[in-house]
Amino acid sequence: MKRRHLLLLAGASAVLAACDRAGAPGASGAKFHSIDITGAEYARDFKLTDQHGQERTLADFKGKLVAVFFGFTQCPDVCPTALAELAQVKQALGPDRDKLQGVFITVDPERDTPELLKAYMGNFDPGFVALRGTPEQTAAVAKEFKVFYAKVPGKTPGSYTMDHTAGVYVFDTQGRIRLFTRHGSGAQALTEDMKQLLQAA
Fold first, then answer.
1. Which of 119, 103, 87, 94 is nearest to 177 (CA)?
2. Is Signal set as a keyword in this record (predicted)?
3. 3-state class (DSSP) for residue 138
């Protein structure tokens, strides 16, 4: 197995271990395809700047389901796949599509400028929000969400890529953390979970 995949799995395992420690999975009593982390004492908020220069927190999206994914724009496969699936989920919600807010948090603020993030979001859904912070802010929000990320040297001098936890955090319309969806679960399963959360709202 490639080193990148091993590290992605390690990041996801850290999140799952945190779920176990919190005693949160299944806490809501609902049946989800995703991992139920209702009541977890992490992934509670973020405070970062979006691609338009506006400071954003979770409270800005109250009344909507919020799907948060950590990644970087030069990611070759995992990130674009996850964002494309989120866009599919949004469309699959039909008349409720505007009740889903996609949020992308870059783990590579060094290269991911606001202009680049704005263009990148346009590839998936122009309504999605991309957030970036200083290296210190990025580290703090990743710690809050128990997200692993690390810079990995590339094949040419000065180049690099990023390894990171691959998964989507889902907040309900009241701003409460509810689910963690592992990468590869598919758009259909996440759509069904989103519909269930909307019905319970």
1. 103
2. yes
3. helix
